[in-house]
Amino acid sequence: MVASSKRVECFADDTDLEASSRMPTPDMMAMEVHKVAVLQDRTGLRSFRHSLSEVFFPDDPLHRFKNKPFFKKVVLALQYFFPIFDWGAHYNLKLLKSDAVAGITIASLAIPQGISYAKLAGLPPIIGLYSSFVPPLIYSVLGSSRDLACGPLSIASLVMGSMLRDVVSPEDTKEYLEVAFTATFFAGVFQAGLGLLRLGFIIDFLSKPTLTGFMGGAAVLVSLQQLKGLLGIVHFTTKMAIIPVLKSVFDNRKEWSWQAVVMGLSFLVLLLTARHISTVRPKLFWVSAAAPLTSVIISTIISYVLRSHEKGISTIGYLPEGVNPSSVSMLHFKGPHSSLALKTGIVSGLLALTEGIAVGRTFASMKNYQIDGNKEMVAVGSMNLAGSCVSCYVTSGGFARSAVNFNAGCKTAATNIIMASVVLFTMLLLMPLFHYTPNVILSAIIISAVIGLIDVRGAILLWKVDKFDFLACMSAFLGVLLLSVPIGLSISVGISVLKILFHATRPNIAVMGNIPGTNSYRDLAQYKEAKRMPSFLILGIESPVYFTNSVYLQERILRWIREEEERITNSNERPLKCIILDMAAVTNIDISGIESLKELKRTLDRRSLELVLANPVGEVSQKLSHSGAWELFGPECFYMTVEEAIASTSYKI
Amino acid sequence: MVASSKRVECFADDTDLEASSRMPTPDMMAMEVHKVAVLQDRTGLRSFRHSLSEVFFPDDPLHRFKNKPFFKKVVLALQYFFPIFDWGAHYNLKLLKSDAVAGITIASLAIPQGISYAKLAGLPPIIGLYSSFVPPLIYSVLGSSRDLACGPLSIASLVMGSMLRDVVSPEDTKEYLEVAFTATFFAGVFQAGLGLLRLGFIIDFLSKPTLTGFMGGAAVLVSLQQLKGLLGIVHFTTKMAIIPVLKSVFDNRKEWSWQAVVMGLSFLVLLLTARHISTVRPKLFWVSAAAPLTSVIISTIISYVLRSHEKGISTIGYLPEGVNPSSVSMLHFKGPHSSLALKTGIVSGLLALTEGIAVGRTFASMKNYQIDGNKEMVAVGSMNLAGSCVSCYVTSGGFARSAVNFNAGCKTAATNIIMASVVLFTMLLLMPLFHYTPNVILSAIIISAVIGLIDVRGAILLWKVDKFDFLACMSAFLGVLLLSVPIGLSISVGISVLKILFHATRPNIAVMGNIPGTNSYRDLAQYKEAKRMPSFLILGIESPVYFTNSVYLQERILRWIREEEERITNSNERPLKCIILDMAAVTNIDISGIESLKELKRTLDRRSLELVLANPVGEVSQKLSHSGAWELFGPECFYMTVEEAIASTSYKI
């Protein structure tokens, strides 16, 4: 159906006239009307296949193999599954130099962070070092990001600690370790499973507002927990929620130790200052990267010289030397705590994954390459699966250390290998040096790390852009702070999902008018220059029409008509004759929506008002056709544009 | 900003030329470009108030009170809250005549149905009659539908029975009644609460596919349950699920009674034939309406004459005479079963409400009046609240009896009063007559009533229109049949909601082209005549851009660009210069969506590709502006139409 060539005439010459005198011109009458096409029938199976491939393979991973010889295909597949073969093939000394600098820098951050985060999770400090050794090695083979630095994460550690401590006491080290390793195993299975099943989009459901609120709440929680170390309190609650923690702090005022407070606050100020310097001048990234290790060294020396552990400052104490011992025998899939381990594994695994992928994507976009979410999940999952067998707990790519890595000029995932080597060296030779490291310094390191997670500016931006998102953010924040980590998280995921449903339940309807001098019709509320068309009511439905909104839309359209008729009566304009629904934004429709349209048509027929639909899109045209509504309504009900609908119905009026 | 009058020139004269030669004409160059307006700022509070009023008062219930004197306002308010004052004021003998015929007709249906449905819920038969007396009277005062006939419902009875029997044995009559009345009380509170809080839209979440599947499954379940009566089995399972029921049937083959089978099947055939006659000829509505009572009378006479209760046919037995006794003392809000009562009340109350409102809406639309969902909820809730105090269980408006009511020519809610009077007369004087009524006839009545709920045609239509909806339907069907009623219901509500989320997670992107002879741009897949514009890639995003799809859209758009560039290379066309996103269907955007747009812009800038947005709608323009993205992108990035975008960027290419 090729249209013959005719000039489309618009309401061009009458923009200065009153709206009520805007009669159809002869030109308009002669306007050619285009048939609305119904989207070509895909057979059920093909359409289903298409849907599936959009869900699971939106990136079309096979496109790189197209038209390649067999050998090349094998190499490509190897490079696809093990990215190390990709970058490893072109590796050279220059890259190594860059990576070595970055790797040593992040190692100096990773060692104190590893020890601190393990304590946060309620685990012995040495587990944090173990977790900074094996997982980064695995990531360097499987990971597709060039900037991610792997190891324990503050949020995942916090969540694991808070969920496990509710049931198991960290005092009972063996049982606690067993549950923690089993949870790590489940986290790995869950993460790799999501990736293999290509369900990576599930992490997208943790929206920005949710994460902003959650991270903020978690950061406050973690910081409060550190009051134990900062104040030198010995008897402290094992609960994470804000009330028992504050109670512990003030009930044990007698245990406060001024030596711990002075030392802790001094180093906290030092660390925060270092962080600030690096934020303001990214070139000085090494200031904040080196600050934790420097603090550890200085405080250990002070502590050793002053014998401060005798003066109310507790120290880390003995750490065993040697590499990761096997923990396969500690994985228990039956028994009283297996469901706890499963739950903890899924929640902390999900959060670790979300952080890792978000960080990976951020830096990839800065360097203009793409990472494959599903592949990253498999890499992170493998890290945790393997880690759970060699005394590691949940790990992923962390924001802080990846930022340092990026600023230190990392080039490939080899930085992880170098970092792991430094950690190995430490574990083999330097463990006795940590004996006198005061615990208060670990608290200061944790606080300075998590305080950056409180994103006040982000929250303000949310308030500006969308009040509902701000609500979701605050719910997550308060939920985590006052209730518990999993509850806070569920509430805010729930609110984010409700927002989508809400949009689909109460969609906006725009009353539209002609933009003078064009044949476009736009929202009267948005375009002040848009003019109503006498005798017509043009409504833009701004949502798919589903069971959740079909009744609402039907009744709301009738209300619009009632209000328009009242307005017309009051202003003595020409009576309403025709309602045009602009369907451009109705991207889908279901049975309930079709029923509602039919009913609306019947109702308006009885009131001698015409109902026509402009610009039904592909999917909608197809569904209207399959349900028989297309024939029922008749072809004179469908127009390609609002303009053609007006021109055609003008005849009859 | 009023546009000056210029003729909009289109690609009118070159439709016959090759697409690749379609250069911008001088006319196009001179085309006036309209500034994209940003939706005027509503203050946070006003926008919030507007949102709230759309959620809770979409029908603007106060509009009828506008500009009315005080006395009139009082009368209108009275009529609003008690519709009986509305229709009662104009009531006359002619209306009474119609209502009397309809009322007596539905009473003849309501009495046997009441007895049968009470048995379905595991309650003594007399409770079914009590429930057909008080609730209809209350509805006639508060209800806004003219066609709804109230009383017990098959589905709600089934659900209540199945949920209660899992925990409490119906043999323990007192305890069972206590839980049932308490559940009814909770159902009433829940229903009236939804209405008062104007949360009526919640029932819209039970979508058509869900209900079709659920009703079908429930009908099969109920029918299978009736095998007990039809086969005359004495020892039968109290479970509802299909496996234990079939096991009961075949394990107790010895108890099968041929007398019961013969009598049951004969009357079932009679009832189904009567139903068929009334379906084919709606004028003969009285055939199906009178059939149940006729069957009861005939079977009772046969049973009395043949003394059949001595021959393996059980009968109803003694029914107490008199009106509803008070049951206030049987409502227990504490104790072991209160949470069961709460759960049962909410589920059965929700289903009763859904049926009542759907039926009310259906008949209202046939007679061209509107019912107010929230008001109906208050009416139904009051029925159940009051009912729970006078020995009634969950009631609402039923489909079958309302259809009979409609066909019998009912005019107002007075039919409910007349029906209640007939029930009262029966309860006071005719109870001994039911002594010999065989139970098998009640089973036949139930089967013939619920078999109509199996909507095979509806399921086929779902298959045709949307495979996903069909899946939701079948999940509800199988879930109810094989698992349990609440689980089946939750699964299918979950699937319906997932469908909406899915649409928001993997939205369609349409590649668009110019419709020759117009300035419209449409989906190439839908309109075969649409032509690509050389150097341009026009993508229509068919969904709001949210956190659930922002990453997908960003990556999918890059894939579209990659594929377009491959196509261009293969066909030796002019290289791609500009990507136009048609935002007409992007009805909303959130922070993540804005971030993705920014990142896409950055990525394309690096590749020297231009990105422009056409027709951002009100809400989106506002959010882009508030987040600062509008200024960041610059005005040359936004166009009112795709055409103006092409005309303007043509300069630079």
Automatic annotation (TrEMBL), chains A, B:
Localization per record: Membrane
Key word Transmembrane helix present: yes
Domain STAS residues, every copy: 526-649
Primary location class: membrane
Domain of life: Eukaryota
GO BP terms in the entry: transmembrane transport
Keyword field: Membrane, Transmembrane, Transmembrane helix, Transport
MF GO annotations: secondary active sulfate transmembrane transporter activity; transmembrane transporter activity
Stretches assigned to coiled coil: none
Bilayer topology term: Multi-pass membrane protein
Protein name per its UniProtKB record: (wild Malaysian banana) hypothetical protein
Organism of origin: Musa acuminata subsp. malaccensis
